[in-house]
Amino acid sequence: MPNIDQLHQLFLKSTGICTDTRKLKQGNLFFALKGPNFNGNLFAEKALNEGAIAVVIDEPEYDKGGESFILVENALKYLQNLASYHRDQLKIPVIGITGSNGKTTTKELMQTALSAKFKTFATRGNLNNHIGVPLSILAIDDTFEMAIIEMGANHVGEIASYCKIAKPTHGLITNIGKAHIGEFGGFENIVLGKSELFDYLKKNNGIPFVNTNDAVLKNMQKRFENAVTYPNEHDYYPANPLTGGVFLELETATNVVSTHLVGQYNFMNVAAALCVAKFFEVPEEAAEEAVATYQPKDMRSQLIKTKHYNIISDAYNANPDSMEVAIKGLVSAENSESVVILGDMMELGELSELEHEKVGEIAVDLGVSKRFYIGKLIKAAKKTDKFGKFFENKDEFIAYLKEHPIKHGSTILLKGSRKNALEDLLPYFEE
């Protein structure tokens, strides 16, 4: 079993880390990770045959001998330890980011703004868990001047463990909401879990960026003498965005920044990015121009214009807070008719029925013209939305659409948890 320095030297000689032989590249260092439905040890020999420089395994029966097989006690733990060691070699600012809503969008906006001055790494996609965080750290080479590491969580202690790997010098919590409340076991535990990022910064003299519009986060600010806050009425952008239109606009002291982001709720995400950019002395005009060019993707506040409809694809995930702000964003936009197609929200535990009822109430109270609900959990909204249309699954809804097409010119919001995969409906609106 090699020590961590020897393993790191081997990693530096490799072309990167691989945990899936289907994505293996010549010269990769393969880690045989395990999960409920897979065992990477089974593919170790295949990885070598297909060009891996070496394989890290944790089951002796798959050790064929020789330097190419590295037998360790726990492959995942070794991956995490390797990432932690690699992080120690990086002498750059690392910004940790977490929160209940807006993590990925804020991360990408921050990367866009910071890249106007620095070569900035950011977590790719949603690699924000116990495997994704170490993989992200190991993807940072010595050409990068700054890094942003996204941290997701659904239980207490998770973010603390990621901080031990990523060792952030700075941190930002977008907000504290009800996402994963069932898994966390209550709102108090969400606060505890998310605050672990700030706990780490406090202990290690790091710098937090604090959203003072969030009461819980504003209270956390009291722990720090070096907190950087946003939005700030004395800064170059105000707390209140301009209204009107589908896309978000912000007013600065000298400029109006027009973005490609749908919904006023994205204001805080942009404000966070501009705050971080200013702290790191990115020229204001360059940061604003960068934010203005950012194009959302991956079903996060993404506007898709088809021949007959404007579709707000926000279907990557959903929780009670993000569902409410998305519906508010829809009705605040200028459109002839507003339509929601909403799916289930997962991981809400005993609050599931109540929170789904609230979704129906919000859609009705805000005056959404047409309301469609797909899934088993969202059926609870029948109690508060007597005139909405409810469907067991997407196929049932598609059959209904063929007989009752949505009015041309409508703006349609697609919103639901990842399990719903509501993006599957997009082809039916693009015809």
TrEMBL record:
Start and end residues of each Mur ligase central domain: 97-277
Root EC class: ligase
One GO MF term attached to the UniProt entry: UDP-N-acetylmuramoylalanyl-D-glutamyl-2,6-diaminopimelate-D-alanyl-D-alanine ligase activity
Keyword Secreted tagged: no
Keywords assigned: ATP-binding, Cell cycle, Cell division, Cell shape, Cell wall biogenesis/degradation, Cytoplasm, Ligase, Nucleotide-binding, Peptidoglycan synthesis
Residues bound to ATP: 99-105
Reaction catalysis annotation: D-alanyl-D-alanine + UDP-N-acetyl-alpha-D-muramoyl-L-alanyl-gamma-D-glutamyl-meso-2,6-diaminopimelate + ATP = UDP-N-acetyl-alpha-D-muramoyl-L-alanyl-gamma-D-glutamyl-meso-2,6-diaminopimeloyl-D-alanyl-D-alanine + ADP + phosphate + H(+)
Subcellular location: Cytoplasm
GO biological process, one term: peptidoglycan biosynthetic process
Ranges for domain Mur ligase N-terminal catalytic: 15-85
Pathway(s) annotated for this protein in UniProt: Cell wall biogenesis; peptidoglycan biosynthesis
TM region positions: none
EC number assigned by the record: 6.3.2.10
UniProt domain Mur ligase C-terminal: residue ranges: 299-418
Coiled-coil spans in chain: none
One annotated Gene Ontology cellular component of this protein: cytoplasm
Family to which this protein belongs: Belongs to the MurCDEF family. MurF subfamily.
Function: Involved in cell wall formation. Catalyzes the final step in the synthesis of UDP-N-acetylmuramoyl-pentapeptide, the precursor of murein.
Protein name per the record: UDP-N-acetylmuramoyl-tripeptide--D-alanyl-D-alanine ligase
Species the sequence originates in: Marivirga lumbricoides
